[in-house]
Amino acid sequence: MKRYLKTIRSDEALQRILDHVNFSGGEEYLQTYKCRERISSRSVYAHVSNPPFMCAAMDGYAVDFSKTIYADLSRPLSLMITRDAIPVNTGDPLPDGTNAVIMIEDIEDADTSIAIRKPVYLWQNVRMIGEDIVEGDMLIPANHEITAYDIGMLISGGITHIHVRKKPRALIVPTGKELIDLYNVEEPVNKLGGLVDFNSYTLLNLAEETGLDCTISQIAKTKEDLYDIIKNAINAYDLIFVNAGSSAGREDYTEEVISKQGELIFHGISMMPGKPAMFGVVDGKPVFGIPGYPVSAALIFYTFIKPLYEKMMHSSKNTKLINCKTTYKIPSRLGIEEIIRVSLVENDGIYYAIPLPRGASIFSSMARADGLMRVPVNIEGFEEGDTIACELLTKKETLKQRIHIIGSHDLSLDILRDMIKTHHTAFDLISTHTGSLSGITALSKGIAHICTTHILDENEKIYNAPAIKKYLADKPCVLIHIAKRFQGLIVRKDNKKNIKGISDLSRPEVKFINRQSGSGTRILLDMLLSENDIEKHHINGYDREESTHTAVGIQVRESIADTGIAIYSIARVFSLDFIPLAEEDYDLLVTKEFTEDRRFKLLMDMVNSNEFRQRLEKLGGYNTKETGRIKFTKG
Questions:
Q1: pLDDT for the residue numbered 248
Q2: What is the distance between the alpha carbons of residues 465 and 462, in angstroms, rounded to a whole number?
Q3: E strand or H helix at 252, and its extent?
């Protein structure tokens, strides 16, 4: 087994990369309208002025202003058409002998003359030559990223072609015997017994989004494949990214192949995710060994490839940062930089960061992330309520158009999101599944305006209202019913362990999968265990947690667990059997102030619609008789 060479800090790694890359890719001469998001290689100067002549800024009549000075409200002045007043439209050149334009709205028309009741002043309603652009003006400098507005300006200045820097050519080399290219197989993927290579296509799009001209090679199944691909590609490409094979396993060949063909500069970065990354130079070309875990791959790209591209192209894209508050304590290991993916909630101009799953293999959290928070190597994380700079991965405007729900998971939230994106495309619904109690806590702290909840009070046997009164004593809020739903044990169709009810969970051979602490499902389970005198520590899997009903369903379907508690619709989705335990109220809790927000009214239109009820009922396990009913208002 190989070991990493000495790990280095991420800032040192970046500096080594920049020091070893000298790129002179040349330039190309392209039609101006094809150059959006390209980098200019030379300054560009206007060939013509805009406008190129004095022209009318309004529809009306061009005149010599001195002939209008005696016009008065009580004594209209008459001007002969074609002699004293020449008809013009917006953009027409100003006729000789004229220096002002009377707007069409300010004249009293006649067949051969016009009457005006107020004078015009010199150059009134006239665009001066070069008002926008003057011939010879520098329109854009070298090393400028060209926007759509730049293109309009350049063309208005008579520029048909410009010189731009050639895009660096990059090759992505996927490695691994287990990989399957989804675009090069004929059989269904689930019958091939391999892993779908989605990393390469993620990196391809990140590369193209950055500005690289990128290609994916064939999959390197062996060390010899990898050696040959790099050897044959090194002259044709400016950068090579070897994906996977950068760690220290027996089949991780990237380090050996780079070292054999060139020089390995470093292997190992004190950054998480991303530690196994490596960098080397082959025939003067940069070759990266990028970790196979998808989040690691993406973060290595953000941290190193984008800054390298900026150096190669002599450009700079400023990282968009905002300050946000941490919603929970975020622990981290001392001595390693950790990059935390976060979902952001905007509330009254304050941005709150909710940490997403941190595993390097959980790529969905990268896709759902709104930002990245970096924990420096010299601290052990952040405390709750700390204000931290966050690298934005989305737009601030997008955050303000969201309905962000924190709390209990349910498939109804997916339906609502789909309906909102269908009927109101500018808006979106994001749900963060922290559990009912955590959702209520988020409301109490002012982090969120909406949460979902299904907490059963053990004494009163009432859902949600007692918990709200307990935890939101001083917070005006409204509780709205979404639906009644069935919770129960889900088991595979064969049910080999013969599970029939809650008492079977205490059998040592039964593998259970639990929901997270604070979730309504967990609270229901604990109440049922107490009623049946079952000790938690007697349950095989009580401490194994998932945050969604869907995740529980997959664990049971794949025989990782024998049973778990989930809603009835999950049993239908995954073709499982269902053992009912309780019918519960799944409700929406909203702060009183948010009920006046346009986003809330939009959400309630969806909740109260026939379409929503019909789609819930089609899933099965829902009672929608009282869907949309306000259960109570507090404060």
A1: 58
A2: 7
A3: none
